[in-house]
Structures are given as C-alpha cells and as structure tokens.
Amino acid sequence: MLFNSWIFFLFLPLVFAAVYAVPQKYRWIILLVASYVFYGWWNADFLIIIAFSTVLDYFCALKIEDSENQYIRKRWAALSLGINLGILFLFKYFYFFIGSTAWMQDFVSPHQKLKDLVEFFGKSLPVGISFYTFQTMSYTLDVYYKRAKPERHLGQFALFVSYFPQLVAGPIERFTHLNEQLKVEHKLLYQNLQLGFRLMLYGFFVKMVIADNLSYTVSSIFNDPGKWKYYWNIIGVLSFGFQIYADFFGYSLIAQGVAKLFGIELMDNFNRPYLSNNISEFWKRWHISLSTWFRDYVYIPLGGNRVSHSKWIFNIMLVFVLSGLWHGANYTFLIWGALHGLFYLVERFSPFSLKFKWLNIVITFLAVAFAWIFFRAENLDQAFQVIKGLAGALDGQRQLDTQPYIFLLLLIFGILELARGNKRFDQFCASYSGIQRWTLYCFLIFCILTVCGSEYSAFIYFKF
Amino acid sequence: MIVNVKHTVYKFLAVVFTVYISAFVYMKIYWVPELKDQGPMLFNLLEFEWHNDALYIGESSNYWIAPEDQDKRTISDMINDSLPGYRLSGMQVPAYHAGMFLPIINMIDTKSRVKHLVVTMNLRSFDKPWILSTQEGALMRAKCFYYSSNPVYNRMCAALGYYYNPSPESQDKKMLEAFEFDTLKVNFPLKFNTIKRWCEQEKFPLPQGGEDFPKRELADHYIKAYAFQIDTNTNPRIKDFDAIVKVCKQKNIKLYFNILAENIEWADSLVGKELVYFMKANRDLLIARYSKMGVVMVDNLELVPGRYFGEKNWTTEHYSEQGRRIVAVNVCHALINGMTIKK
C-alpha cells in the first residue's frame, strides 16, 4: 500500500480508530495486523519472508542472550546475519550475480529448472527488503554486542520488525529507540494529532507536488539524453537531485507523521542535505538512518579511523561502495557509492579550502548531483550518454515542454526549507500564530489539489 | 483529549473553503491545458461539440497514414469532405476501446450541435488480448479525466490510484489461462477448440526444411486476435456498447457503429476458413444485436482488400489511403441516409 494511494486514506483512519478503541495490552495486535495488511497489499506471498526473518531473529537473539559462551553467541549471531543476508542476496543480487558472471551463466543455461529459479528471483523483489533486513540485523547485532536486551514477546518483536509507517522505506529504526515506544501506552493527545497531520501534509506536498512534478522532466532527459539541447540535460540532472530528495524526504515526513498519530517518534532521516558544506556533512544529513547504520555496524567494527592510513582509505571506500550496492544490484549503484567515497577522500586530502561557505555548498551540491546521474541511470551506457549530453556532445536540438510553474513550486519549496532552519516542519509551524499556520496549510492543500503530479507513482525508495 | 470546538469549526471551514477555491482555480486555469495531455479525447470534445453536426470516435485506425500515401487525410476527414452541408470531426486516441468512449459520449452536451455519432467498433476490441491488455491500467487512469464529476476530484482519483489498475503479470496470466481453457463451440468439426492448441498445431514448413517462423508467429497473432466467440453476457465490450446505445438514446443522438475492416484475405491464407468463420460470426452477432437496438451498423469487415492494409506483419486496422477511402465512403453513405431521414 502506498501512502499516496486512496486505499491508505481509508486504511489509516480505520487503524487509528481501532488502535485507540482497544486497551493498551491489545494494541500491538491491531498494529501488527495493520502492518501485515499494509505490506501484504503489494504481494501477500512476501509476508512469509518478513515472518520468517522475524521468527529467526527472535530466536537467535534469545539464544545469544541466554548464552555466556562467546563462541555460541557468535554462532547464533552469524546464523541470523547469514540467513538474513542470504535472503537479501537471493532476492536482490542473485540474478545480477548470475547475469554478470560468464561461468555461472554457462552453468545455469542448460538447466531449465535452474534457469526458471534464477528468473524468479530476478523478477521478484519484495518491497523494502533492504530496509527491514537491516533493521532486524541491527537488532541481532545490538543484542550480540550487549547494547540491547532481546524482546521476549514474539508479537511485540514482530511489530518492531514490521511497524507499517516505516516498514518499506525506513527510517531504519534502532531496536532500543522504537521497541520501547511501541510498548508504552500512548494516550490520544491533540498535540500528537496536530504534529502528525502537519508532517503528513508537508510530506504529501513535497512528494506529490514537488517530486511527482519533476519526474516528467527527469525521465524525458534520462530516457533520451541525445534528443534535447544541452542545457535541458543540465536541468534534468539537477531536477533529479531535487526529485529524489523530495520523494524520499516526503516519504519520511509522512512516515513520521503517521507514527506520530500513534504517539511514536521516528528518527529524522534528513536535515536539509543540500545545504551541506562537504560530502562528509552531506552524509550526516542525507538518509541519516542508513549512514549511521553503516557507521555503527560496518565502519566502526572495521576499526573506524583508529587504523593505518591505507586501511582507513580502504574502509571508507568499502563503506561507500556497500552503501551504493545496498540500493540495488547494478554497476551504476556501485559507481555512485564509489564516487561518493572518492569525493570524500579528495575533500579530506585536499590542501585547498574555500573561503566562502556558499561556494562550498554549491560545489558539494554539484558533486552530489553529478553522482546522482549514476544512481538514476538504468545502466552505465545511459549514464555516460547523460554525461555526454551535459557536455553538449550529443547535438540534441529539441526543447522540453516542462511547465514553468514547476520551477516556481521548487522555489517555494526551497524558501520553505530555508525558512524552517534546523527545526522540523511541525516545530517550525509551532513558532507561528494560528492564522499564519493555517494560511500555510491551506496553501499546501491548494497546491496538492491543483498542481500535484497526476501520475499515480510509487516512492523511488520502495524498490530498494 | 480537549478540543476547542469553535476553533475546530473555523479550521474545518478553512479547509472546505480551500477545497472550493482549489476546484475553482483548477477548473478555470489548469483543467483544459491538462486535458490536452491527460484526457485528449475530452479536450477535443469540448472544442468540437459546438461546431459539428457529427462526431467520429475511434482509435489509431482513423489517423494511421502509410508513408507512401498521396492522400494524407484521415477517415473522418474524408467523411467530412463528402458530407455536403454538414460538419464532422474525428476524435481518436490509440488503443482506446468502447469502455473509454463511453464516458466521453456521456459528456456530450445535449444542447450542443452534435446529433450524429459514429463509433468505431473494432472486432479485436472484443478479444482477450485487448480486454486483458497490459495497457488497461494506463487506459483506466486516463478514464479518470473523462468522468462528469468535478475535475479536481477526477485528477485526485488519477493521482491517488483510484481506478482499476491490474498488474501486467496478472493480465498476462489471465490471458494465458483464457488461451488454454476457453473453448470454441461450433456446429462443424473443428480440430482445435482452444487458442493454445490451435496455435500449437499451426505449421509452416519450408521447402528446404525447418519452419517459416515469422509466418507462424503472424498466424499465431491472427488466431489469438480473431478465434473467439462473443459472449453477450460476459464480454465487457458488449456492456460498454450497450451503455453507449442507452446514453445516445437519452441524448437523442443518432448512433452509427462502424465495424472496421479486418484483413480477411490474410486470415484465410495464413490460418484458413475456420478463422474467417469466427470473424464473420462475431460480426453477424454484433449487427443482429445492435440493429435491433436501432443503431445503424456500418459493415466494413470484408470490404478492404489485403493489399490496402498498411502493416502486413501484425493484426491491425491500419489502412492505406485506398483502404481509408473505402471505409469513409461506406460510413458516409450511412450518414447521408441517416441525416436525410432526419430531415
């Protein structure tokens, strides 16, 4: 089920009413059923994977906790991680792996059943598999490192894994942060509804008005970069930078808003990333739940910055390449991750420092936007075509018929983002009077109704 | 939870007012330009209905033009040029079927000039590959823009996915099941009573050995496209055409169903008489059904020779200028009769 679908507008009030209608001790059942319905709406078959992951991690964590023997603890942790990563590999990387290794192809080709199996995994990607797999893996690791006590209530743990507002595209919550909140009784508070609806309204505006309207410009350019005048390629690439931000940020806001209606506070996933001074700062502001995951569970266990210089460089590149591959099995994601790693290292070793802050921001944004080309392109060939188009090497002559008001909307979005400073949108609104707030809400509703993208489109990050 | 009732009423009114203003502004500023892209047939209707006595509603068959054609006019243009004293315009979008025409016809203003309506009746639109096309979701999305409800409501339906949107996989699965299990029932001996078996049995051996695969593939297309029997109780197209008849009666519009020409010659030479039988039987059924309902049936099914079909490697209703002219003349005769009778 998509947040921006009509069925969600029926689903949410029903779940909301049901949750607050029952006593606290039964609420987890309502939320768990709702979460499974929410996920099963796409493909009920894939619920088996979530259920399997849940049961596996539940038992492995208990076994880890119950044992004092380090070897046994390690074995249970390895079992949990191995199976979780195995499932992720099967559904996300297996097809790519077979397709890109000649000897595997030679091995598979003569066996029809094996070929069908590979085809099956190539075609079936459970929505949000990377998100919930990483969330459950962090739980196992937290229990293993004794940073968290395991949950002994299977139903409660299942809810932590599948809590619907953040199930398919994050934020990738930590067990200690989310589970405790899910267990506590939340009263129906006007303030929670107020904050929740604010976040949701802004989220829908950002997704449906900004991201969806930019998608036409972006897909036209990426589908056929050679067709357009070079400056349209530049506009297309920059537009994708804003589209993906608006799309993912919009999703995160709606997720936070929906969770807030139930009294749950989800972590912030974004902090105005395009105002970063450098790549390192960008990764502290962009998809924060994923970057902190990689920091805590990959980078630091590898030694962090307390290793030799060459090992550190290797670790940095590894973490960035892995975060690229986390998004999907494609060389484009690998290059996207590697580019960020490279930018990070160049920045770190660069003897130059720019005097003007705004220039740093512009350069960082341009570097990020350039890397987005690989993220958006379906293959390397398309990415290089777009780059050629940027350089004006493709002789395209056509003008794109993008509606000019889209750029005006983008400007309004930019002003709102600048105006809210470091405050979250709901807190930002709270600093204004009722009339000012409601003028803004009415404006956002007006934009959604009159100029939102009319294409029914899923969130970009759902496919990861 | 404590709620200030007065404030809540104000907030509610503010939202209602915003929705009202949004609907007004959208309708006045954005609706018509958006229709140009999202709902082109309604865009045409809004323009044509006040200046035309007749409308011609169709799909790609109306505007497809062979590169070598000297006469580049569409079928509807040819009809218009042959209708002295009357004006007719064509409205067409590729892959549209009667289910898409219905809401458009519903939108014709009874006070408008339009009193005659020619609706394309494409035999293939009754078959499973078209009914279960993977394009159906996209068509249903476009259909949102054609409803008579408030345009803002319509566009929100499209944006929030409030339309029938089957997945391509489920459509393909249903189609394959239909090919395998839907049986053809006739009162003469038929070797293969399902599409799947029929296709499997078709062979095109080459003199030097092996098989002529392009020919076989084309024969398969013909079988899948035409080897069916219209079930008037279940076929969704029948329901659509029935509804069109009803709407036109209510609006007092004279209705003409234009049964498009199919490549009978190729169907016969590639697959055989059995396939042609199904094509004709379906045509006869449609003529009998809708003539009874008072619709003027224009039968072009067998009129266009195979050489006048634009694309030889596919089952389409795309005609060269001679083919278009044959269809246009036939429709024109029907219209002149209809218009004279009315006079």
Question: What descriptors fit this protein?
Answer:
heterodimer; A: 464 residues; 2 domains; 71% helix; B: 343 residues; alpha/beta; Rossmann fold; 5-stranded parallel sheet; 15 helices; 5 strands
Lay out the secondary structure:
The complex is a heterodimer of chains A (about 475) and B (about 350).
Chain A: H1 6-21, H2 24-40, H3 47-66, H4 70-100, H5 102-108, H6 112-123, H7 129-144, H8 154-162, H9 175-183, H10 190-223, H11 230-261, H12 279-285, H13 288-299, H14 309-327, H15 331-349, H16 357-376, H17 380-390, H18 405-420, H19 425-430, H20 434-451
Helix pairs in contact in A: 1-2, 2-8, 3-4, 3-7, 3-8, 4-5, 4-6, 4-7, 8-9, 10-11, 10-18, 10-20, 11-16, 11-17, 13-14, 14-15, 15-16
Chain B: H1 5-38, H2 40-48, E1 54-58, H3 60-63, H4 75-81, E2 88-92, H5 98-106, E3 116-121, H6 128-131, H7 136-144, H8 151-159, H9 168-181, H10 195-201, H11 213-226, H12 236-251, E4 254-259, H13 264-270, H14 273-292, E5 296-299, H15 321-342
Parallel strand pairs in B: 1-2, 1-3, 3-4, 4-5
Q: Give the spatial strand order of the biggest sheet of chain B.
A: 2-1-3-4-5
Most strands sheet of chain A: none
* CATH class bucket of the largest domain in chain B: Alpha Beta
Number of beta-strand segments of chain A: 0
H-E order of chain B: HHEHHEHEHHHHHHHEHHEH
Round the mean pLDDT of chain A to the nearest integer and report it: 92
Order of SSEs of chain A: HHHHHHHHHHHHHHHHHHHH
| Tally of helical segments of chain B | 15
Number of individual domains of chain A = 2
CATH topology grouping of the largest domain in chain B:
Rossmann fold
What is the number of strand segments of chain B?
Answer: 5
Q: Kindly, what is the distance between the CA atoms of the first and last residues of chain A, rounded to a whole number of angstroms?
A: 15 Å
Count of individual domains of chain B = 2
Kindly report the greatest chain-chain contact and the residue count on each side: A-B, 26 and 30 residues
What is the multimeric organization of the chains shown? heterodimer
Shape of chain B: globular
- Summing up helix and strand content along with how strands pair, one would put the structural category of chain A as mainly alpha
C-alpha-based Rg of chain B, rounded? 23 Å
Beta content of chain A: under 5%
Classify the beta-strand content of chain B into a percent band. 5-15%
- The helicity of chain A comes to over 70%
